[in-house]
Design the sequence.
């Protein structure tokens, strides 16, 4: 009695240079699932759930295309094809038979999409009758979509729809195929039926938890972990837990996790409709990543209580100028920076701050469109290429400080602040935290620095009135601590820290968000005593799935997952993590060095250390010259077309076993240059390629440790966390 659509979520918003053609090799990083009484409603719910900046089968950029361009794109099998089909039908430039001939998509699907575009064309007249409103909702158009087409506001359409008494009803997913009565608390909305199947007679307290939607780069399954643990905490408190999410891969959408599950898009309209039906006490948004946080303002404006950190305090952390005020009041330093709304201000500001600078749009997740620029030409290129700058969406320009990056997760009740652990990043600031190797507890930070980080974390939590979880990123440079950013929500490191510190962070944060104090829960303010073992979180990448994507690491996140290594010895934990992440470290053989001029001095010591371990060294001419100055043999190999034995050929033959390559500025943007081709060749031939010297030093440490043939413990995590300290 319902239709279900599973729609993939592709990472092409991150990998703008990637080949978007869809074929036999999977490229999606996640998916959404939607349910409705008809295909039209289900496909439009799925599109709204994807969080790719669209809310119907329409992309704004296609408005500028002429008919010829639309027909040309119809032949391309890529992530935008369904939108192109809708555009062709909307314009009437191709009928169902013609589109079927080009795409070979079954006419049943094309007729359904045609029904949606026919209703859209009726709405363009601007007169919305009850009959037209009902048909628009029956084919799945959101209030926002109807408003956009008819030239009204979403609030006007919502009000008009309610006065017409056109409201969604909620149906239960029948997991028993009508053989006997289903008792699965698992619902979807529809405007295609009248009878509602939700039982709202319960007198128990009710709280809604918002999930995080599809898995994508920057927002993965870590937020599902948080959502599920929050639901468990609510149920233990005797509160009825309602979850809203749309990702079929997650635990939160298992029907037996929450008291009630709504499989719906995470948009203001869809969530408010559920709230109208369920009337919960309030909503928890801090465990659903940026997806849930972005809904906080709209829900609050609609009169919904947001548990935990207030919407105003969330904005104080995310709005540049307001956050600067918080730091000034708390007397906490941050790298110099400005917020700009045009290219001229960016150029003047960067000149004043001093290059290199970190540039990024405000309100971003996963470091999207974030780059380090080293001169005015690069800044002009960035402002023209990477972002659309408007007064509503300014660009942040910060002084880039090359120091040690440190990450902290904390729980605050507004008075006391518990810090389960501090994580030190292996890669220097400038590599996105999600792509860095993170180590708990810190290995190189002094007691003074750790004390300062604890102090700043307390000040920020209290200054921002945080009630629940928060994540802070610091950079330590010249023995000073600077704040990079604060996120007043759960973060991707919460599952990692919860598992290695044995502090059930989400459970505690949920109780705090609902009004409990940390003292009542038995926690003291400050840093929890570090454990006697070391845990390492290492990123996992999917570069082999994406042609034309540069594997070099920078401020924009590229990893699609992570692994953890744990041991009583740092090098052993690191070994477990990087081998678990799929890096095949050679124990001997040949290493290629090809590094930027700025890194050559540091590279000399690294090359010397690898040579002492017995590795043969080869290098491009500039790098070879620097190595030879140390009195170390390094064979010169040619870049492409320089000589017969070029680097790519050596990689293909298996003559090179590891590559250490750092980029010159702007090199990564050009897919035609040597560096890019070398890095891609390493992916295609499964050879480790290290694009950060920090990572290379740690790999060297692992190799040295392995040469000593020290025992690697294979213990269960319970043996470490559960008190197997005698094994140390």
Sequence:
């Amino acid at each position: 009695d319902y239709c279900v659509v599973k729609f993939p979520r592709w990472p092409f918003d991150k990998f703008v240079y990637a080949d978007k053609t869809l074929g036999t090799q999977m490229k999606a990083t996640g998916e959404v699932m939607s349910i409705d009484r008809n295909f039209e409603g289900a496909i439009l719910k799925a599109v709204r759930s994807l969080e790719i900046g669209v809310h119907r089968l329409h992309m704004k950029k296609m408005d500028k295309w002429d008919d010829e361009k639309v027909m040309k794109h119809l032949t391309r099998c890529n992530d935008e094809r369904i939108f192109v089909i809708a555009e062709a039908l909307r314009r009437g430039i191709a009928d169902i038979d013609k589109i079927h001939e080009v795409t070979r998509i079954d006419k049943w699907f094309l007729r359904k999409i045609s029904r949606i575009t026919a209703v859209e064309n009726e709405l363009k007249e601007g007169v919305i009758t009850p009959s037209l409103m009902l048909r628009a909702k029956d084919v799945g158009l959101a209030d926002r979509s109807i408003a956009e087409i008819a030239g009204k506001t979403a609030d006007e359409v919502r009000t008009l729809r309610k006065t017409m008494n056109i409201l969604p009803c909620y149906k239960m997913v029948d997991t028993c195929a009508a053989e006997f009565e289903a008792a699965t608390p698992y619902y979807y909305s529809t405007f295609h039926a009248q009878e509602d199947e939700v039982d709202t007679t319960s007198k128990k307290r009710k709280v809604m938890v918002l999930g995080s939607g599809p898995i994508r780069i920057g927002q993965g399954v870590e937020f599902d972990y948080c959502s599920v643990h929050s639901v468990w905490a609510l149920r233990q408190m005797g509160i009825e837990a309602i979850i809203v999410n749309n990702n079929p891969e997650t635990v939160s959408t298992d029907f037996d996790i929450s008291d009630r599950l709504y499989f719906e898009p995470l948009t203001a309209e869809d969530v408010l409709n559920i709230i109208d039906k369920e009337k919960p006490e309030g909503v928890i948004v801090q465990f659903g990543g940026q997806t849930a946080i972005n809904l906080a303002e709209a829900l609050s404006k609609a009169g919904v209580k947001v548990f935990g950190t207030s919407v105003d305090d969330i904005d104080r952390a995310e709005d540049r100028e307001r956050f600067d005020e918080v730091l000034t009041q708390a007397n906490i330093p941050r790298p110099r920076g400005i917020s700009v709304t045009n290219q001229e201000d960016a150029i003047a500001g960067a000149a004043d701050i001093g290059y290199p600078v970190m540039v990024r749009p405000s309100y971003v997740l996963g470091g999207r469109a974030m780059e380090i620029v080293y001169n005015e030409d690069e800044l002009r290129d960035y402002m023209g290429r990477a972002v659309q700058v408007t007064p509503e969406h300014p660009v942040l320009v910060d002084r880039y400080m090359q120091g040690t990056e440190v990450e902290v997760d904390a729980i605050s009740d507004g008075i006391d602040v518990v810090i389960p652990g501090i994580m030190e990043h292996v890669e220097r600031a400038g590599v996105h935290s999600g792509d860095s190797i993170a180590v708990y507890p810190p290995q190189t930070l002094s007691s003074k620095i750790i004390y300062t980080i604890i102090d700043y974390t307390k000040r920020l939590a209290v200054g921002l009135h945080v009630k629940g979880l928060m994540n802070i990123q610091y950079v330590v440079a010249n023995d000073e601590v600077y704040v990079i950013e604060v996120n007043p929500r759960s973060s991707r490191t919460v599952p990692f820290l919860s598992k290695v510190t044995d502090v059930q962070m989400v459970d505690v944060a949920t109780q705090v968000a609902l009004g409990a104090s940390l003292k009542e829960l038995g926690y003291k303010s400050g840093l929890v005593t570090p454990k006697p073992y070391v845990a390492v979180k290492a990123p996992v990448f999917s570069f082999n799935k994406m042609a034309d994507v540069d594997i070099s690491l920078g401020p924009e996140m590229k990893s699609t997952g992570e692994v953890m290594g744990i041991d009583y010895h740092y090098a052993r934990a690191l070994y477990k993590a990087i081998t678990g992440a799929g890096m095949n470290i050679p124990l001997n053989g040949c290493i290629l060095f090809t590094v930027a001029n700025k890194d050559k001095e540091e590279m000399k010591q690294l090359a010397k250390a690898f040579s002492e371990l017995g590795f043969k060294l080869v290098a491009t001419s500039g790098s070879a010259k620097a190595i030879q100055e140390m009195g170390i043999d390094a064979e010169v190999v040619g870049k492409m077309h320089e000589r017969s034995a070029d680097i790519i050929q050596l990689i293909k033959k298996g003559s090179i076993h590891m590559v250490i390559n750092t980029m010159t500025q702007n090199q990564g943007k050009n897919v035609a240059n040597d560096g890019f081709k070398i890095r891609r060749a390493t992916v295609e031939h499964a050879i480790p390629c290290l694009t950060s010297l920090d990572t290379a030093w740690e790999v060297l440490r692992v190799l040295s440790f392995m040469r000593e043939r020290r025992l690697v413990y294979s213990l269960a995590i319970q043996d470490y966390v559960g008190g197997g300290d005698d094994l140390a």
About this structure: The chain has a mean pLDDT of 90. Residues 619 and 636 are 5 Å apart (CA to CA). The first helix runs from residue 39 to 49. The radius of gyration is 27 Å.
